[in-house]
Amino acid sequence: MCSISINARLLRPLMQAAYTQAKNKSRNVASAVPVLSTADQQFLLEPEQRQRCLEQLNKLPVVERPKSMAPAAVRHENSAASVLIALCLERETNEVSLLYTRRSRHLRRHSLQVSFPGGKRDDTDASFVDCALRETEEEIGLGRERVDVWGESNAIKLPRTGPIVPVIGVVKDFHVSELKLNWDEVEEAFSIPLNTLLTAAAARHTQFRSGYSSPAFVATPVRIWGITGYLTYVFLRCLLPRQMLPESLKTNLKFVRPYKLPPKTHHHAETGDLHVM
């Protein structure tokens, strides 16, 4: 009898390729009936729409923990993090998509969950934009010179985290093959077309026993929920004029109020679950 030792890291690219192929099949089904034409998608990237999107993002609400929920341990209350919501203009299809990552299976918290690139702000970051670009480059190898930054939104305060600042940017001529993943932090990176996210089959919600629910996207390669589901939900509502929104994304959130970022924020924020209506 003989034993064969296989390096798991060498197998990862092959496993990821097979997994991506399987996901693309479901992606094609979900986006069989486009919600946005190519012209619509190009329209969303025009300067006037960029400004409108940022103005809407700066009105984003905070989600407060319902009184009916048991108090959760809030870590680093005055800390902050930043994420990059990247609109990618796909090289092969000329479609606009959003860029996501899936956290490494080796991480202690939220392993294998879908997220946007980004993370904790540290003292070396000049701004939240700098933080998001640095973390993105460290996690998936997408250089900051590839990102046309639109700007940042107001901080969003969630039930179990410090404030999170979304940074919006555009990556043109994008192909996922250009990414170089940091396997210690990221299991995979992938993009999902706007048309897939906007289909009626994609936009759903997670219902909690407390009576609150969280936006979720299920007819996608990987289920998007929690903080990432919430950020995807509100970003799409800010990006698209109301007449372009599908009915599933026109529902207004309740039980929210504005949040102001503390004047000095240097430490880290950890992600948590989101409970909204």
From TrEMBL:
The keyword Secreted does not apply. It comes from Drosophila busckii. Keywords: Hydrolase, Magnesium, Manganese, Metal-binding. The keyword Manganese applies. This is CG11095. Coiled coil: none annotated. Gene3D superfamilies: Nucleoside Triphosphate Pyrophosphohydrolase (3.90.79.10). SUPFAM superfamilies: Nudix. GO terms for molecular function: coenzyme A diphosphatase activity; metal ion binding. It comes from the Eukaryota. Residues 78-219 form the Nudix hydrolase domain. InterPro entries: CoAse, NUDIX_hydrolase-like_dom_sf, NUDIX_hydrolase_dom. PANTHER family: MITOCHONDRIAL COENZYME A DIPHOSPHATASE NUDT8, NUDIX HYDROLASE. Its cofactor is Mg(2+); Mn(2+). Pfam families: NUDIX.
